Amino acid sequence: MGEPVRVKVEKALKEMFDRISTEASAAVLASSDGLVVAYLTPPDVEPRIVAAQIAALRGMAERMMDRVGAGSFNRAILGGSNGDVVVVKGEELLLGLLLKKGANLGLVMLEAESSIKRLEEALRG
Amino acid sequence: MSEMSEREKAFVCIIYGLEKGLWDLMGEGCLAVASLIGEGMIEQMSRLAKIDIYSIGEEEAFKEIDRVLVEDMDIARSFSISRDKDIITIEVEGCTLLEVQKDLIQQGIKPFICPFMNLVACIIRKRGNSLTKIEDINVDIENKKCVLKFKEYK
């Protein structure tokens, strides 16, 4: 019997996170209905709630983009005084990254958008 | 469905408004609050029905949902849960909320405020033993029956 799906996804997330660990301080992978699939977060970040918030944010963004005719939702970037939050949409998963202050947003976006496919493949087993 | 009391009508209006308003705002993102709603419900059930869902096994927790929502609160006529490989199926018959859900479904709104789905989602997910997603929500108005499916990733 192969590795459980959970382990495969956690490994894939860790590999991705290691590549941007100088830029990001947390990562949460969520399903479109708000389930936390995998996470790498500091103890003060509750991944279960963050996953639900990521899915709700995506829902709200999709609604808004639809209303203003902006097409389909692909990503969201929230700017904060202590760092940014990036949410990238895959086919069925959402990846949320908390970035360190002054992080290279372009580098993170490139990594996130290419990694989400690998994370989804890991979930499908 | 039998004639609704004034109190039930008020209840239906509140649930309908809540679901419709949130759906207008967030669309499918509303499903993200399903298990969080369940979490809040469990808090109230612990206080009002004096049960501690988190201290008992999963099967026993489902029996408690049945006891409290069906036998004590009379929200539905029956509730059952079964597993077939990676699919967990919940069947609810004769639910009081069906009247609200009917109007919402006609507008393409998924009934994310369903006490059974909210509680089961919360119990399965909070225990953290498996990854599950909401696979299907099927409401059969004619037969007064709802079938909710969760898919479990092994």
Q: How would you characterize this protein structure?
A:
Chain A contains 3 helices and 5 strands. Chain A is an alpha+beta fold. Chain A has a single domain, classed as Dynein light chain 2a, cytoplasmic (Beta-Lactamase, 2-Layer Sandwich). A 5-stranded antiparallel β-sheet of chain A has the order 2-1-5-4-3. In chain A, helix 1 packs antiparallel against helix 3. The N and C termini of chain A lie close together (12 Å). The mean pLDDT of chain A is 94. Chain B has one domain: Trafficking protein particle complex subunit 3 (Muramoyl-pentapeptide Carboxypeptidase, domain 2, 2-Layer Sandwich), CATH 3.30.1380.20. Helix content of chain B is 47%, strand content 21%. Chain B has 5 helices and 4 strands. The longest helix of chain B is centred in the N-terminal third of the chain and has 21 residues. Chain B starts with 5 loop residues before the first helix and ends with a strand.
Keywords:
heterodimer; A: 125 residues; alpha+beta; Beta-Lactamase; 3 helices; 26% strand; B: 154 residues; Muramoyl-pentapeptide Carboxypeptidase, domain 2; 4-stranded antiparallel β-sheet; 5 helices; 4 strands
How would the global form of chain A be characterised? globular
Tell me the series of helices and strands of chain B, N- to C-terminal: HHHEEHHEE
Taking the alpha carbons of the first and last residues of chain A, their distance comes to: 12 Å
Helix content of chain B: 40-55%
| Mean pLDDT across every amino acid position of chain B | 88
C-alpha Rg of chain B (nearest Å): 15 Å
Largest sheet of chain A: 5 strands, antiparallel
- Kindly name the structural category of chain B: alpha+beta
Strand order of the largest sheet of chain A: 2-1-5-4-3
* Helix-strand pattern of chain A: HEEHEEEH
The CATH superfamily title of chain B = Trafficking protein particle complex subunit 3
User: In CATH's first tier, which class of chain B applies?
Assistant: Alpha Beta
Q: Report the largest inter-chain contact.
A: A-B, 27 and 21 residues
